[in-house]
Amino acid sequence: MREIPVGILGTGKYVPERRLTNQDLEQMVETNDEWIVSRTGIRERRIADPAQATSDLAYEASLRALQAAGLTADQLDLIIVATITPDMFFPSTACLLQERLGAKQSAAFDLSAACTGFIYALATATGFIKTGMYRHILVVGAECLSRITDYSDRNTCILFGDGAGAVVVGEVAEGRGFRSFVLGADGSGGELLRMAGGGSRIPSTAQSVAEGRHFLEMNGRDVFKFAVRVMGSSAEEALAKAGLGKNDIDLLIPHQANVRIIQSAMERLDLPEDKCVINLDRYGNVSSASIPLALAEAVEEGRAKEGDCLLLVGFGGGLTWGASVLIL
Ligand code: UT7
Question: What's phi and psi for 23, nearest 5 deg?
Answer without folding.
Answer: -65, -40
